[in-house]
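Long-time lurker, first post. I've been practising inverse folding by hand and with some scripts of my own, and I keep getting stuck on stretches where the structure tokens seem ambiguous. Below is the full token string for one chain I'm working on. Before anyone asks, I'm not after the true native sequence, just a reasonable design that respects the backbone. If someone could post their per-position residues I'd love to compare against what I wrote down in my notebook.
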């Protein structure tokens, strides 16, 4: 693996961890403000989290469909975060910070998975490894 692919691997892992932390924060925040845990909603969120893990894994191992779906869903997440931010203009700034974080992390994810030379090098390396097994 060359140096560019190693950088792509590190960034892919860091972005994936960041996205999973955002998902965990969203799940926690949703249930922490409620008096009772809604079991059905929690189950839906856990399934969504596991699907996110699976999608990020497919993207990590170099699946082209995983890369495309990841970029599309990250774009939709940014749109959702912007809408969420605009709907909370009258709340204190501290409450809007998660929206800034989501926009920033998902934006970096789109940049990395869609346009980064380091990810392309890592993607090609992952496909070369899978092809030689």
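-- Answer (accepted) --
I ran through it position by position. Result:
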């Amino acid at each position: 693996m060359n140096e560019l692919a190693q950088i792509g691997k590190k960034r892919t892992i860091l972005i994936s961890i960041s996205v999973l932390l955002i998902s965990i924060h969203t799940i926690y925040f949703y249930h922490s403000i409620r008096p009772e845990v809604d079991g059905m909603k929690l189950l839906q969120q856990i399934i969504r989290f596991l699907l996110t893990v699976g999608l990020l894994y497919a993207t990590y191992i170099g699946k082209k469909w995983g890369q495309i779906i990841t970029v599309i869903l990250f774009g939709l997440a940014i749109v959702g975060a912007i809408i969420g931010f605009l709907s909370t203009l009258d709340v204190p700034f501290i409450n809007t910070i998660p929206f800034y974080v989501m926009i920033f992390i998902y934006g970096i994810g789109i940049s990395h998975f869609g346009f980064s030379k380091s990810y392309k090098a890592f993607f090609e390396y992952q496909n070369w490894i899978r092809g030689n097994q």
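A couple of notes from the structure itself: DSSP finds five helices and no strands in the chain. The chain has a mean pLDDT of 93. Happy to go over any region you disagree with.
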